[in-house]
Write a structure and sequence with these properties.
Keywords: NAD, NADP, Oxidoreductase. With 454 residues, this protein is of the alpha/beta class. The protein has helices at residues 22-39, 44-60, 62-73, 77-101, 135-146, 160-172, 187-195, 208-220, 243-255, 275-286, 307-322, 372-379, 395-402, 437-441; strands at residues 2-6, 13-18, 105-106, 113-120, 123-127, 150-154, 180-183, 201-205, 225-228, 234-237, 267-271, 328-329, 343-345, 363-369, 387-391, 409-412, 431-432, 445-452. The strands form four sheets. Strands 12-13-14-11-10-15-16 form a seven-stranded mixed beta sheet, with helices on both faces. The longest helix is centred in the first third of the chain and has 25 residues, at 77-101. 50% of the residues are buried.
């Protein structure tokens, strides 16, 4: 089977690769198993030094990697550069903190000595998405490998060059061979790898459907599992919010990466006292967005990653129109490329599909509510619980309301950003487990109790 990388702006083929057979995967994973025996015994301080070198490789080659991202999935080049820098910062964090995070924890139990120690599990299999093709892989792999595991990944089929280039990053940084390995495979082969118990843990970022299927399979085999399954994040604006700042953040949060982000502001929930002023401020900033060639330094919104994704966005928009929506569409559509122009749906209703599913594209529904209680009720009304944003100048009130919103993380008067110092993940059907920080670091370790008696 051929795996093609298609440029969503030019609509031309970037690169073509042969997919790996199951036999090739078995052989590569066997090599990973051998690499684990060496890598896991390396002192954590020595492993950490490798990640300092990774951050250097990333920064030295930022333009190369950023261009690959942009060519493969259409992200504006400025945003692609930022993604690479974010990966470098992640490596810096774990290089500096791995030894502390893996340090034995002494517990006084009355015995001669009692402590908790953290040991790597083995081969961790990452099934990764295309929307942040470098960041998502690094977010999964760096903590897992720093803890002493080795990683193999199945990347999304539309970003094979990114997958192979990431593998080269680790080799160039001096990692032993097979500590990190990219497999160019389809979903069927990925499932078979799990079925054959070739790996010791699984991490998936993707849809609820994929998460349910992988979760059932891995759970049946009693494999450690982390699932990050997206969201329909509420962006709540209360009557005492700074409207201009909230509108500016809402535009960035909804339209970054053409709206193709799991933590994008997918439902704008605004108190009726200020909704007119908020919409005016929001529209004014949307009109300033530049749509076009993602390699252009001035571009804010590039194409959607794959042509077929446009059909699903059109379907969501048709559903909203049938239910009374009068969408506002902004900008001129470029003559070529898989573009979907920014859309605002004022007076969106909660029975619309756009307010209930994860919409991966630049559509912004605005839901008007009477007060904070209705805002919280609607925020919690979907099956998702990944992240949320809340705007109010009364910080005590905002923190009180934050406790009522069912999500994995919430930002008050700001945007949600995954940060290596903080755990990332969701509740309800947005996922299981956490990535990043000490909590994500320990998802794929054996938390072992040791009690010593005389």
């Amino acid at each position: 089977m051929k795996i093609k990388s298609i440029n969503p702006y030019t609509e031309e083929v970037n690169w073509t690769y042969d997919s790996f057979s199951l036999g090739e995967c078995r052989a590569r994973i066997e090599n990973s198993r051998a690499a684990f025996l060496v890598w896991s015994l390396m002192p954590v301080e020595e492993r950490a030094k490798h990640f300092t070198r990774v951050s250097s490789v990333l920064r030295q080659n930022t333009e190369i990697y950023a261009e690959i991202i942009t060519k493969e999935m259409g992200k504006p080049i400025r945003q692609s550069r930022h993604e690479i820098e974010k990966c470098a910062q992640l490596c810096d964090y774990y290089a500096e903190n791995a030894a502390r995070l893996l340090k034995d924890e002494i517990v006084d139990t009355g015995a001669e000595k009692s402590y908790v120690t953290f040991e790597p599990l083995g081969i961790i299999f990452g099934i990764m998405p295309w929307n942040f093709p470098f960041w998502q892989v690094f977010r999964f792999a760096v903590p897992a490998m720093c803890a002493g595991n080795v990683c193999v990944i199945k990347h999304a089929s539309n970003v094979p060059k990114s997958a192979l280039e990431i593998e080269k990053v680790f080799i160039e940084a001096g990692f032993p061979e097979n500590v990190f390995s990219s497999l160019l495979i389809d979903s069927k082969t990925a499932m078979q790898i799990i079925k054959e118990e070739l790996v010791d843990g699984v991490s998936l970022t993707g849809s609820i459907g994929a998460g349910s299927e992988i979760g059932e399979l891995a759970g049946g085999l009693i494999k450690p599992l982390v699932l990050e399954l997206g969201g329909s994040d509420p962006f709540i604006v209360l009557e005492d919010a700074d409207i201009e700042k909230a509108a500016q953040a809402a535009v960035r949060s909804r339209f970054l990466n053409a709206g193709q982000s799991c933590i994008a502001a997918k439902r704008l929930i605004v108190v009726e006292d200020i909704v007119v002023d908020f919409i005016k401020a929001f529209e004014r900033r949307v009109q300033e967005l530049k749509i076009g060639d993602p390699m252009d330094e001035e571009t804010d919104i590039g194409p959607i990653a794959k042509k077929e994704f446009i059909d699903s966005l059109d379907r969501v928009l048709r559903d909203a129109k049938k239910k009374g929506a009068k969408p506002h569409i902004y900008g001129e559509k470029p003559e070529r490329g898989f573009f979907f122009n920014p859309v605002i749906i004022p007076a969106a209703s909660i029975d619309m599909e756009v307010c209930n599913v994860e919409v991966f594209g630049p559509i912004a529904p605005i839901i008007t509510v009477e007060d904070e209680n209705e805002a919280v009720e609607i925020a919690n009304s979907t099956i998702y619980g990944l992240a949320a944003k809340l705007w109010s100048q009364d910080l005590e009130r905002a923190e009180r309301l934050a406790k009522r919103i069912k999500c994995g993380s919430i930002s008050i008067n700001g945007m949600i950003k995954s940060d290596p110092r903080l755990p990332f993940g969701g509740v309800k059907k947005s996922g299981v487990g956490r990535e990043l920080s000490q909590y994500g670091f320990r998802e794929f370790v054996n938390i072992k109790t040791v009690v010593v008696n005389k």
